[in-house]
Design goal:
Length: about 375
């Protein structure tokens, strides 16, 4: 187990990455399933998705506030069990109120799992490779989820996406609860994470980086939410768009590897800034009135850009933020930006079309890159 971790592999971290990011990845399919099977709830599903993301952000921030005073293994166990409970009951929820509650609870579980995942990786001493492994695991989960779940939905309908996540959550819970040996111990790093840490403090650099992350993901989630619609506006069929997005999931597997390679050449912080630049290029190709075939390049490269950017940003934060507060709060910053982005983007599209939305979100990418760059120049003084 220890040799695997030093090489950049940890099965438990991979499994936790699956469950922690299941909310973001699974959202399109459960929204579609609920909308198709329960017409009375359909007008509310967008609000449910926002509740889930905001609950995740709030839980992640709360967890980050107590980093250094929490046993991350124990709270990850509780969060894993809550994730299973919330998704099982989501599958059977008959009323909008029940589904709102269950999606909120699922968001809380995801936020805690994201925070503990990042804090654990940051304390292993091999953050670059393990963050790359974590993000690659997320890409693999996305491929499996989008390959298997739609077929299950044909037979089981709304049950399929929720039960898929619940089963993965149960596997994680069992692996963490009953795992033994150095791999489980190294992956949870319990000896380093129990008790109080005097290094766990907020710094100006960390807070600037979180602001930059949030700004970038306002643009990122806006572009992702309307990626299919932008392709339709350029005249592509749903089948062609879907093929491009699926191919993009496979290409995204190279994103974390590319981020580590660039980091060895240029450093960790430039990876995050380059990633923001990749987003600018991708959204320009997707939203602007230029040759239509550039849209297919955008569909192919969007998820690659996301995993490249996140891997670089997380690895830099882990190296800079030794106390663990900022790196454990980073997924919350992503979720806040992700929750705010699509609603704002929808208003921009209604006002001026996809080019207007794209132009504004490109400004968010540039501002986010500048703020993250500024974080690299400030001193690590307590905020």
């Amino acid at each position: 187990g220890e040799k695997l971790q030093k090489a950049g592999f940890s099965p438990l971290i991979g499994l936790q990455s699956w469950v922690a990011y299941s909310g973001l990845l699974g959202m399109p399919l459960w929204i579609g399933a609920v909308s198709a099977s329960r017409p009375a709830i359909e007008p509310l599903v967008g609000y449910m998705a926002s509740v889930q993301l905001l609950s995740s952000a709030a839980a992640g921030l709360a967890c980050a506030a107590f980093i250094g005073r929490l046993n991350l293994r124990y709270i990850a166990l509780v969060a894993g069990l809550l994730l299973v409970f919330a998704n099982v009951f989501s599958a059977f929820a008959a009323s909008a109120a029940t589904l709102f509650l269950m999606r909120g609870l699922s968001g809380v579980a995801e936020g805690v799992l994201l925070a503990t995942l990042n804090a654990t990786i940051a304390r292993t001493g091999n953050a670059d490779r393990l963050f790359a492994f974590s993000q690659t695991s997320v890409a693999v989960f996305g491929i499996l989820f989008f390959a298997i779940t739609p077929r299950l939905m044909e037979t089981y309908g709304v049950f399929a996406p929720f039960f898929f996540v619940a089963v993965i959550g149960a596997l994680f819970f069992l692996a963490l609860a009953f795992g033994s040996g150095s791999d489980a111990e190294q992956a949870t790093d319990s000896s380093a994470l129990e008790g109080t840490s005097s290094e766990a403090r907020w710094t100006l650099a960390g807070m600037l980086a979180l602001l930059g992350l949030g700004l970038v993901f306002v643009g990122s989630q806006s572009g992702w939410a309307f990626m299919e619609r932008m392709g339709d506006a350029k005249g592509f069929s749903t089948a062609t768009i879907g093929a491009g997005l699926v191919a993009g999931q496979f290409l995204s597997l190279a994103g974390p590897v590319a981020a580590v390679w660039v980091a060895t050449k240029l450093g960790r912080l430039p990876v995050a800034i380059i990633g923001a630049g990749l987003y600018v290029a991708v959204l320009t190709a997707a939203s602007m009135p230029i040759a239509a075939h550039f849209y297919l390049v955008a569909a192919l490269c969007f998820q690659f850009s996301t995993l490249f950017f996140v891997t670089g940003c997380f690895a830099w934060l882990a190296a800079r933020d030794t106390g663990g507060k900022a790196i454990s709060a980073a997924p919350a910053a992503i979720n806040i930006g992700g929750a705010l982005g699509p609603g704002f983007a929808g208003w921009l599209i209604h006002s001026g079309g996809y080019p207007t939305m794209g132009a504004v979100m490109i400004v968010f990418f540039i501002l986010g890159g500048i703020v993250i760059g500024a974080a690299g120049w400030v001193r690590d003084e307590p905020a």
